[in-house]
Amino acid sequence: MITDDRWEGVYSFEDSPYLMEILTLLRSKGTENIKFRKGLVKLGRYMGYEFTKTMDFKKVKIETPLESTEGIASGDRDHVYIITVLRVAIPLMEGLLKTLEHSRVGIVSASRGKAPDFDIEMSYIKVPHMREDDTVIVCDPMIATGSTLLKTVSAIKECGDPKRVVIIGVLAAPEGITAIKKELPDVEIYVTKIDRELNDKGYILPGLGDAGDRAFGEPINISLLPLMHNLE
Ligand SMILES: O=P(O)(O)OC[C@H]1O[C@H](OP(=O)(O)OP(=O)(O)O)[C@H](O)[C@@H]1O
Ligand SMILES: O=c1cc[nH]c(=O)[nH]1
Ligand SMILES: [Mg+2]
């Protein structure tokens, strides 16, 4: 896990060849839906594992069949509260739950509009009760302009005052991190890698394209439902 001189409390995993190998697979345009989703699940599992190194654990005394010894038992790991931002956080959450299996989970829908405004349409928030000893992990693979996460984290902060609020994602653009840190300086950010920049359509470069579409397929308009503003 490495820090970045540009911000406080922002960490990436560029020092992990295994995570970089999975990221390379996700970036490649030849990687189809199934492999893309599996890659996100794997990243979630191993980022979750790396994240546990930042958590507090309890010391315990135990008896082996031969003698007494000391060990550790989960402390903070028992009090994790994951917020999953639809759609593409679903496979990342599935991976996180493999190492943070006690987590309670809240679901938020967010859909980003087109440039230059990038309005965020948030029509569904269903979250469990939040406690003071919770570590809240807001899980969204792509931090582009940061607007989705700013809106999501601000909504979540109204639900309580948890021990930590953390964002776990795959890729971030510097622009998005700066926007989030300006409004929410205490929020910690963990991403596989911080990429170079955003293009004029708000996509991360070099990035991996539209992560939701690559994981689940390009959406179509359904006339009976309200028009989601990210469709043509
Ligand atoms: O940092 P921002 O500029 O707000 O952009 C990032 C958001 O864009 C993507 O979601 P999208 O709106 O494409 O929804 P989807 O997951 O359903 O495709 C992504 O999953 C983030 O939530
Ligand atoms: O590069 C980006 C930016 C936003 N959302 C994505 O899926 N990809
Ligand atoms: Mg999308």
Q: What is the count of β-strands? A: 13
β-sheet strand percentage: 25-35%
Structural class: alpha/beta
Order of helices and strands: EEHHEEEHEEEEHEHEEEH
Shape: globular
CATH fold descriptor: Rossmann fold
Distance between the termini: 39 Å
Identify every distinct bound molecule in the structure, by name, code or SMILES. 1-O-pyrophosphono-5-O-phosphono-alpha-D-ribofuranose, uracil, magnesium ion
Number of domains: 1
CATH class: Alpha Beta
Instruction: Give the radius of gyration.
Output: 18 Å
Mean pLDDT: 94
* Number of helices, where a helix is a run of at least 4 consecutive DSSP H or I residues: 6
Oligomer designation: single chain
Largest sheet: 9 strands, mixed
Q: Judging by the overall fold, what is the CATH architecture?
A: 3-Layer(aba) Sandwich
Helical fraction = 25-40%
Low-confidence stretches: none
Describe the structure in your own words.
With 232 residues, the chain is α/β, with parallel strands linked by helices. It has one domain (2-55, 76-216): 3-Layer(aba) Sandwich (Rossmann fold). It has six helices and 13 strands. It has helices at residues 17-27, 33-51, 89-99, 147-157, 174-183, 211-216; strands spanning 2-3, 10-12, 57-63, 68-74, 80-86, 104-112, 120-126, 135-139, 142-143, 164-172, 188-194, 197-198, 204-205. Strands 1, 2, 5, 6, 7, 8, 9, 10 and 11 form a nine-stranded mixed sheet that branches. Strands 3-4 form a two-stranded antiparallel sheet. Strands 12-13 form a two-stranded antiparallel sheet. Strand 3 (57-63) and strand 4 (68-74) form a beta hairpin. Helix 1 (17-27) packs antiparallel against helix 2 (33-51) and helix 2 (33-51) crosses helix 3 (89-99). The protein is globular. The N and C termini lie far apart (39 Å). Uracil binds at residues 204, 209-211. It catalyses: UMP + diphosphate = 5-phospho-alpha-D-ribose 1-diphosphate + uracil.
